[in-house]
Amino acid sequence: MKSLGKALVKLLLIVPLLFVSLTLNAQDTNPYEKARAEIEEEFGMFPKMFEVFPDHALAGAWDNFKMLNSPESKIPPKYRELLQLAVASQIPCNYCIYYHTAAAKAYGATEEEIQEAVAHGAQTRHWSMILQGNQVDFEEFKTEFNAMMKHMASKSK
What we know:
single chain; 157 residues; mainly alpha; AhpD-like; 80% helix; elongated
């Protein structure tokens, strides 16, 4: 019985140490802190757009941000920013418009390319409103579109 008592005492002393160790390890690998450190390293600060994001989800959002903007992306940075600018313009989102315009210019986009990207976003919104507002049948639209593409392809030969 004495050995059982000693074992229990040892266990009671060791378990709290394990929790301290686990807590320290968890702090070392805290996903939020890791993401925050990477963001600060990348941008030289912790921007408000990340600060207001829920702490428990920041690491996932940062991973998504990094992956979509990584060198492995199939869309070159200038075109990626122009694409996002077109979407931001039609949402509209002033923050996104500012960000993606500046980023597109930083990647070499000209004023003409920026204007055209915004016009493409507007054109998509325009025709979406025409088709949706007039409740054009989607299957009929697809049939017509496929016929149009076939006709244009035959003309280009």
